[in-house]
Amino acid sequence: MLDSMVNRRIAEILRSGQPDESLIVQGWVRTKRELKDFTFIEVNDGSSLANLQVILDQDLPEYDKILKKLNTGASVEVAGVLVASVGKGQRVELKAEKVKVCGEADPETYPLQKKRHSFEFLRTIGHLRSRTNSFGAVFRVRNACANAIHQFFQERGFLWVQTPIITASDCEGAGELFSVTSLNLKDVPHTETQAVDYSKDFFGRPTYLTVSGQLEAEVMAMAFAQVYTFGPTFRAENSNTSRHLAEFWMVEPEMAFCNLQGNMDLAEAFLKHIFQYVMETCSEDLEFFNQRIDNTVLATAENIINNQFERITYTKAIALLEKADVKFEYPVSWGLDLQSEHERYLCEQLFHKPAIVTDYPAQIKAFYMRLNEDENTVRAMDILAPKIGEIIGGSQREERLEVLERRIIAQGLKTEDLWWYLDLRRYGTVPHAGFGLGFERLVQFMTGMGNIRDVIPFPRTPQNAEF
Ligand code: ATP
Ligand code: MN
Q1: What is the dihedral of CA 45, 48, 50, 53, to 10 degrees?
Q2: Ligand 1 center to residue 147 CA distance, Å?
Q3: Could you give the strand order of the β-sheet that contains 166-167, starting from the edge strand earlier in sequence?
Q4: What residues are in contact with ligand 1 under a 6 Å CB criterion?
Q5: What is the pLDDT averaged over residues 66-95?
Q6: Residue of the nearest CA to atom 2 in ligand 1?
Q7: Which of 29, 72, 275, 342 is the most exposed place for a label (fewest CB within 10 A)?
């Protein structure tokens, strides 16, 4: 019935709608307030945190019938005229002339009633939770972050490359892989030695869901100099933490003719750009997080934008941790990987801002990181953020063929499996560097959301893939 008029998003109407304009809104009812001669409903269409207030006068045709259907959760189309609002809180409101209830929502069973629900509860209704204020704000900020990421790289001439989701290489050599197979699990073919006969599998070899697009990004960087990936990655890590998902999105820039210094500079400018962009485009949502979720959100954003990150070597960081007057659960000593508690101590207690830790011991880092002159440490860099710990992990890559071969063997991997990766060092090798940003960790950092399950629409974690 309402097709002939232009429909407009509520965010835009609240920003620039003028009294006397005729328009249509489409959305879902958040609340209904019945007064003697008229009724207010709040309509939300996901475009903003704020709802549009709609006034239904009792003279409206079929007023009583419509009112009965207009419960929280119902979908509506309203045609009407904007009027200046007399109430506080909004500039304009919509006086309804025609109301169409598209789909009702039974108030007896619709689970999202006006009261506040816990995030735990909302995870059990993953198909409806995006209709709440918190998740609306989270997913708008997530979208803005994605936009900022593309903008940052595109403005600098980086090529967005798509790396494979199914891969035969285990990039990190770290395990945590999901296997991909089309073999019938009830009747797996075996070789003479009773191993699984992967020659009968779809690809004729074992394959996995990718844990990182880095190696393939390096391939592309050796042709386009500056590239980035932005896609899903998978880790079958059975760690039930508030910072780990089994399926998460990663952003991985890779730059030829670049060293660790350039890598750190880019990563820092990158994070600053994203925060700046989200502050500008989602200020209302960030205010909401600051008020309702974590009252340091705005200060953190300002802090990121305005301060230089601390830069410190792993060796110095260990010395500082050894001197710390707190008792860590995991002991600190040179050669051990930093645990989340150590990472958080450094940026929360010592530096009060993000810190870039560089030059980690070679034996705890991946084979592709460039070996330092000391032969003991590698040109790695992790960016640690308050409350989150590691948000970015990167390195200058080993561009020297012999050193790389040595490192692959030392880590128990086979050079034959990485023949194409080694070819990049045989033909036109160049110093290069890159990093990986965990996209959900970024959104957590930005919003103050405590659990990573609440910053991705459909979280994948151990024992959970319902929605
Ligand atoms: P962590 O020590 O926190 O498990 P990692 O060393 O395994 O991280 P990398 O392999 O360097 O992480 O991955 C690059 C980035 O991806 C990390 O800096 C982090 O932001 C993100 N990340 C890693 N694992 C996960 C995960 N399971 N869920 C969400 N993000 C992740
Ligand atoms: Mn990990």
Answers
A1: -30
A2: 21
A3: 166-167, 207-209, 179-180
A4: 235, 237, 244-245, 248, 250, 390-393, 436, 438, 440-441
A5: 94
A6: 390
A7: 72
Taking each helix axis from N to C terminus, what angle separates 439-447 and 297-306, rounded to the nearest 10 degrees?
120
pLDDT of residue 386: 86
pTM > 0.90: yes
The tens digit of pLDDT for each residue in 225-245 reads: 999 999 999 999 888 899 999
Q: Which two tokens stand for residue 236?
A: 């079958």
Q: Cα separation of 290 and 408, whole Å?
A: 46
User: What does the pLDDT read at residue 256?
Assistant: 98
The pLDDT of residue 5 is: 60
Task: Give me the pLDDT at residue 3, please.
Answer: 53
Ligand 2 center to 239 CA (angstroms): 9
| Alpha carbon distances (Å) from 298 to 106, 284, 347, 353, 447 | 38, 11, 17, 13, 9
Work out the pLDDT band at 148, boundaries 50, 70, 90.
Answer: very high
Ligand with minimal distance to 214 CA? 1
Report d(CA 451, CA 448) in Å as an integer. 9
Residue 31 gets the label, from left (phi > 0), alpha (psi -120 to 50) or beta, of beta
Q: Is 263 helix (H, G, I), strand (E, B) or coil?
A: helix
